[in-house]
Design a protein that fits this description.
The complex is a heterotrimer of chains A (about 190), B (about 650) and C (about 120).
Chain A: H1 4-26, H2 30-50, H3 54-79, H4 83-92, H5 95-120, H6 147-154, H7 159-186
Helix pairs in contact in A: 1-2, 2-3
Chain B: H1 2-22, H2 29-55, E1 63-73, E2 76-84, H3 86-109, H4 116-135, H5 139-157, H6 164-195, H7 200-208, H8 214-232, H9 240-243, H10 249-258, H11 263-270, H12 272-275, H13 279-301, H14 306-326, H15 330-357, H16 375-389, H17 396-408, E3 413-415, E4 418-420, H18 423-449, H19 463-478, H20 493-497, H21 509-532, H22 534-539, H23 548-551, H24 553-577, H25 580-591, H26 597-628, H27 633-652
Antiparallel strand pairs in B: 1-2, 3-4
Chain C: H1 21-41, H2 45-69, H3 74-102
Classes of the chains: A mainly alpha (about 190), B mainly alpha (about 650), C mainly alpha (about 120).
Subunit structure (chain A): Composed of 13 different subunits. Subunits NuoA, H, J, K, L, M, N constitute the membrane sector of the complex.
EC number (chain A): 7.1.1.-
Main location (chain A): membrane
């Protein structure tokens, strides 16, 4: 039922995302990792757009791949990293250090993939209420949800959440400022 | 117009408080006092106008003011809403008028204090919070005021925070009332889940029409009783109020005598419809009230600190109110609340003047014979004392106590289908309480004012302190005459004010006579013991040995708290830190000292083995737990991921 | 239990199903695990932060996909929230990194900053 060309594009983007993420976590030099992360995020933005969420895709590009990544680049520039740092990174990244995390992550991944069908299936009888006894109908085609729909629900039922997020942003701003200020005084 | 005045009455003290908190530096000492008294005075003016407006209307008239919807979530909604009926009208009049007089007094009393602005800011904030509490028509809105008065109480007890004892007293008060706040919140949650709204009227209506299950009503009222007891320092929460006397005296008068501690009484009287559906809880309230009444009166009898005597007396009088509430005489409780606010504020303010003039001396045995040096204050104190003791005809307390006592006589409890005629017993105990009340307060009067002058009071009581004393003295003497027993005169202004019909059952005359004789005999006993023979009783150092149990009550309650709350925690800590085996063995040894040697040996061996194993397990476990908490972020993340794996595995694997 | 999918609305343009719901869930799961491995394996705080961002993106992808699946804008609302969360997290994290770097810990070793240990 998939249209072949968009489907291939989606798979390509997904693969790009995964490869980019793999590259991010295995680089020795921070700048390389940041660039790979930008690639990952851009590919993810395409995936989002293909999922029918153009607004989310735009935000992903503008805020994530744009603003947040610029922050990273700035910090990397301020840290003044050199040859010694990448040498230390390669010393820290011996295969032994990867063994435990890789095992744990693989285990989790396997569990998640194993759980996917059961999550999508209707709940087994002991947990199923009267409303869930009808089996889940086959997945319909995905819908496009534009900025109009998002805006309506953002400032309708979720307006309290917007307020809370503004509190969170304020708290982050204050704490970042505080940490930076203490550093300036100690100099 | 009236709907506009209610928020204004709350807003005036609030604005005054904000001004004092923010612009204290730009105000002179006089300016601070004027702002504070002006805020409370304007509020009192609003309340008087409201009273005139409401009294001209039918009794059932209730003024509702909905300011805004606070929150709406699912089927639940809470509002910032005020309601003015006769009960809240009484409360706002008491709060603003007594509060205004105390503010005027405090202007002179605290004149030299460097932190005057902070003091008045807290006091006005307290008045605002108290008005919110008594005006709220939504229980969640009431909870704002409830917490606000607790906060102000904490701030004002620890007002002189240079002394660690004062901050410790403030913390004690805060923690103990916090237990009650949690209970109150539990009650709110129970009621909110049962009815979906916290409107007082709809709560009571829903409970009366049977929409709320019996279980929920009982549990919610029990939680509210715990909350009220913690706020009013009733058994078992009584320990905080005497320590709260560490605050300035006007604070003690306003918060810890006249208004805040009666918030619990107000809550129970406001919800009397709900409590009528839970007779077991009512019986509990009555029993605890009478116990508190007697215990606190006995304790007051052996205290030597003037303010502490008054604090214990407050606890004891609150016990009267709870006794009345428990027997369903809520109008009597409200009447006693009103007269108590008058005479207890008067007593505290007079005590403050005495203490100030006697050079900050609070021990009554070191300030004999003050009567001649300060006749005005003496007259005020004696007026307050006779009102507290309930001397017939001349004290406001007589009429309110009479209303409670005559209502107690026919009281019956319906417990589990049994009809228990507890009335006469409670009446007798209440009468004993009245006797004790007269005894301890006149003991203080005779010891302080009679005898040879030992301290030389300095200065004069300024007019700013004298005028409130005079006003309160008049109110304590004549304030009770609005309601009289039928035997004396058929005046029932108070019950008419509340919109109730006067009691139909005609109480026998000997009930009134007994109620009049009990305080008189107390006065006589006090005169015999402390007034007539000053030398013997006054020089006796170990007064506490008269009633050893009562003398040790404060210490005993502290020890009880230590045993119930602090000790288990300490033991837990100790278990974690020390060798448990030795402790267990020591305990076992003590327990089995009387048993035979063999048995003891056997027990030692067995318990030692068990304890040893436990210690080993605990140690290993603590080392493992310590390893987990090594402060390395990556390990924390790994533990979280491992937990996620385990949780997912239990979910998806069959 | 999720609500039943709504019937297709005529006025709503059907989007070519480039990626199905299941495929995006698989993508999100793998992405999340890659990020987790990065957080656990790397000692450099910069890399840990980047891995955290990958994990957050994986979570956001699930929300968007679910929103598209059940035709509910709440998914994208949650995406916005996650975006704000990530911004705050990155800002505070980078501030801490700068602070540590200025205080003479230029290695940015995540294991050495365990002053909070119990």
């Amino acid at each position: 039922m998939h249209a072949p060309i968009p489907h291939a594009l989606g798979l390509l983007c997904a693969a790009t995302t995964l490869v980019g993420a793999m590259m991010v976590i295995t680089r020795k030099v921070v700048v390389h990792a940041v660039l790979y992360l930008v690639v990952t995020l851009l590919a993810l933005a395409v995936v989002l757009a293909l999922l029918g969420a153009p607004f989310a895709a735009a935000l992903e590009v503008i805020i994530y791949a744009g603003a947040i990544m610029v922050l990273f680049v700035f910090v990397v520039m301020m840290l003044n990293l050199g040859q010694a740092d990448s040498a230390r990174e390669s010393e820290w990244m011996r295969p032994r250090a990867w063994l435990g995390p890789a095992l744990l992550a693989a285990l989790l991944c396997a569990e998640l993939l194993y759980a996917l069908p059961s999550l999508l299936a209707p709940l087994p009888p002991p947990f199923a209420g009267p409303a869930t006894e009808t089996p889940l109908p086959p997945a319909p085609p995905l819908f496009r949800l534009g900025v109009h729909d998002v805006g309506l629900s953002l400032f309708g039922p979720y307006v309290l959440m917007v307020e809370l997020v503004s509190f969170l942003l304020l708290a982050g701003l204050v704490s970042a400022f505080h940490i930076g200020r203490r550093r300036a005084e100690e100099r | 117009m009236a709907a506009f005045l209610i928020p204004l009455a709350v807003l005036c003290p609030l604005v005054a408080s904000i001004i004092l908190f923010t612009c204290a530096r730009h105000l002179s000492t006089r300016g601070v006092g004027v702002v504070a008294c002006g805020g409370v005075g304007l509020s009192a003016l609003c309340c008087v106008i409201l009273a005139a407006w409401l009294l001209a209307r039918p009794v059932t008239e209730v003024l509702h003011v909905d300011l805004w919807t606070w929150m709406r979530a699912g089927g639940f909604s809470a509002h910032i809403a005020f309601m003015l009926d006769r009960i809240s009208l009484l409360m706002i009049l008491v709060v603003t008028i007594v509060g205004g007089l105390i503010h005027i007094y405090a202007m002179s009393y605290m004149r030299t204090d460097p932190a005057l602005a902070r003091f008045f800011a807290c006091m006005t904030l307290f008045v605002a919070a108290m008005l919110v509490l008594v005006l709220a028509s939504d229980l969640l809105c009431l909870f704002i005021g409830w917490e606000g008065v607790g906060l102000c109480s904490y701030l004002l007890i620890g007002f002189w925070h240079d002394n660690p004892a004062n901050t410790a007293a403030a913390r004690k008060a805060f923690y103990l009332t916090r237990i009650g706040d949690v209970a109150f919140l539990c009650a709110l949650l129970l009621l909110a889940t049962a009815t979906g709204s916290l409107r007082i009227a709809s709560e009571v209506g829903a409970a009366e029409s049977g929409q709320v299950s019996h279980m929920v009503v009982n549990a919610a009222t029990l939680c509210m009783v715990v909350a009220a007891f913690a706020k009013s320092a009733q058994i078992p929460f009584q320990a905080w109020l005497p320590d709260a006397m560490a605050g300035p005296t006007p604070t003690s008068a306003l918060i810890h005598a006249a208004t805040m501690v009666t918030a619990g009484v107000y809550l129970l009287a406001r919800l009397h419809g709900l409590f009528a559906l839970a007779p077991a809880v009512q019986a509990l309230v009555a029993v605890m009230g009478v116990l508190t009444l007697l215990m606190a009166a006995c304790t007051a009898l052996v205290q030597s600190d003037l303010k502490r005597i008054l604090a214990w007396s407050t606890i004891s009088q609150l016990g009267y109110m709870y006794l009345a509430l428990g027997c369903g005489i809520w109008q009597g409780a409200l009447f006693h609340l009103m007269t108590h606010a008058f005479f207890k504020a008067l007593l505290f303010l007079a005590a403050g003047s005495i203490i100030l003039r006697a050079g900050h001396e609070q021990d009554i045995f070191r300030m004999n014979g003050l009567g001649r040096a300060m006749p005005g204050v003496t007259a005020a104190f004696v007026a307050g004392a006779s009102a507290l003791a309930g001397l017939p005809l001349v004290g406001a307390g007589f009429y309110s106590k009479e209303m409670i006592l005559s209502g107690l006589w026919p009281a019956r409890f319906m417990l589990a289908g049994h009809d228990i005629p507890a009335g006469p017993v409670l009446w007798g105990l209440g009468l004993l309480g009245a006797f004790l009340t007269a005894l301890y307060i006149f003991r203080a009067v005779f010891v302080v004012f009679e005898g040879d002058s030992r301290t030389d009071p300095t200065g004069r009581t300024p007019a700013g302190m004298g005028i409130p004393l005079a006003c309160l003295a008049v109110m304590s003497v004549f304030g009770g005459m609005v309601e009289m027993p039928d035997t004396l005169a058929p005046i029932h202004l108070f019950t008419a004010f509340l919109g109730l019909s006067p009691p139909q059952a005609h109480e026998p005359a000997w009930l009134v006579l007994a109620g009049a004789l009990a305080p008189l005999s107390g006065l006589l006993a006090a005169w015999v013991l402390w007034g007539r023979t000053p030398r013997i009783m006054r020089e006796m150092p170990g007064q506490a040995s008269i009633i050893p149990l009562a003398g040790s009550t404060p210490r005993a309650t502290d020890a009880l708290y230590g045993l119930v709350f602090v000790r288990p925690l300490r033991v837990l800590l100790w278990f974690v830190r020390h060798d448990v085996a030795a402790y267990c063995l020591g305990r076992t040894g003590r327990l089995t000292r009387l048993a035979s040697d063999r048995l003891e040996l056997a027990r030692r061996g067995m318990i030692g083995l068990v304890a040893g194993r436990t210690v080993m397990l605990t140690r290993e476990g603590s080392i493992l737990l310590g390893r987990m908490q090594d402060g390395r972020v990556r390990w924390y993340a790994a533990w979280i991921a491992a937990g996620l794996c385990a949780a997912l595995a239990t979910m998806v694997l069959p | 239990m999720p609500p039943l999918p709504p019937p297709p609305v005529a006025s709503q343009a059907l989007w070519a199903p480039a990626l199905s719901f299941n495929e995006s869930l698989v993508l999100a799961a793998v992405l999340f695990c890659i990020g987790l491995a990065g957080v656990l394996a790397r000692r450099n705080l910069m890399f840990m932060l980047m891995s955290l961002d990958i994990m957050l993106n994986a979570a956001a992808l699930v929300f968007v996909a679910a929103g598209a699946r059940w035709h509910d804008a709440a998914g994208q609302v949650m995406f916005l929230m996650i975006l704000a969360l990530a911004a705050v997290e990155t800002a505070v994290g980078l501030a801490i990194i700068l602070c540590l770097h200025a205080r003479g810990r230029p290695t940015l070793d995540g294991d050495s900053n365990n002053l909070l240990q119990g």
